[in-house]
Amino acid sequence: MPSKETGRIRAAATRATHLRQLHRGPNPLVLPNAWDVMSALIVAAEGAAAVATTSGGVSWSRGRPDGQHLEAEEAVDAVDAITKAVDLPVTADIEGGYGRAPQVLASTVENVVLAGAAGINLEDAPGDGAALLEPRTQAERIAAARAAAQACGVDLVINARTDVFLAGGSSAPLDEVLARSEAYAQAGADCLFVPGLLDLDAIAELVRRSPLPVNIMAGPGAPPVAELAEAGVRRISVGTALAQTAYSSVLRSARELLGAGTYSSLEAELSYAALNGLAQPAHPRRQEDHA
Length: 291
Description:
Helix 4 runs parallel beside helix 5 (about 100-115), helix 5 (about 100-115) runs parallel beside helix 6 (about 135-150) and helix 6 packs parallel to helix 8. Helix 5 (about 100-115) links the parallel strand 3 (about 90-95) and strand 4. The relative contact order is 0.12. The chain is globular. The protein is built from 12 helices and 8 strands. It has helices at about 5-20, 35-45, 55-60, 70-85, 100-115, 135-150, 165, 175-185, 200-210, 225-230, 240-260, 270-280; strands at about 30, 50, 90-95, 120-125, 155-160, 190-195, 215, 235. The chain is α/β, with parallel strands linked by helices. Mean pLDDT is about 95; it is low at about 285-290. An 8-stranded parallel β-sheet has the order 1-8-7-6-5-4-3-2. The chain has one domain (about 5-240): Alpha-Beta Barrel (TIM Barrel), CATH 3.20.20.60.
């Protein structure tokens, strides 16, 4: 393996160990999801302990819809750029792994690890509105992801996402989530991610009964972080919410500029100098370039 790749692997392994420890601290791991280098730098500057990507934000930044319409290479490129820019563990949203077959998923995981990821989100929704993968099928895929990461020498943190509550149609969704949690834990998952679950009592019950630490996707309408922490949630993320907020700001400003022709919505909280100060040149100019 080239020395450059060896260095990235060592860094990913160290960061994966750190990310795993963050799930065991006295407080839940709170992750404002990023989608590009600047959003990751802002999140890091505000004190985040780790950076999580959002597939929706990454997809939208490339003009694609969310829901597994990215190419695997695009997802890996986003992770690669972010891990090079921040000195924090990065957990990558790889959706369903960009292929149902375990060997395709294993290839995606290997490439994400080589790009410096310390963790992944892996979902059991195949995309395009198809039914969720059967628990046994998804467990085999989780095992393949674990094996691929281990072959690279990284104890990757696998956040197993189940879309039972988002998909609907289950007469006993909490029981189905718990059954999947058991299967995913046995396959090597480290956490259970349950977007769409916002009822605090149900969350507390899931925390009590799940063999895996629970990750909840929060946002408007969700219980505050303090209440989720009291219920025992170990990881809290916000999915596409930050990206939606950013693009909504573009919409408001463009609408005002092209409509009223005024500029009040262009009054930025982050100044040009602040953003420029966060950004780092990829190739610092040589001293003689300044002469």
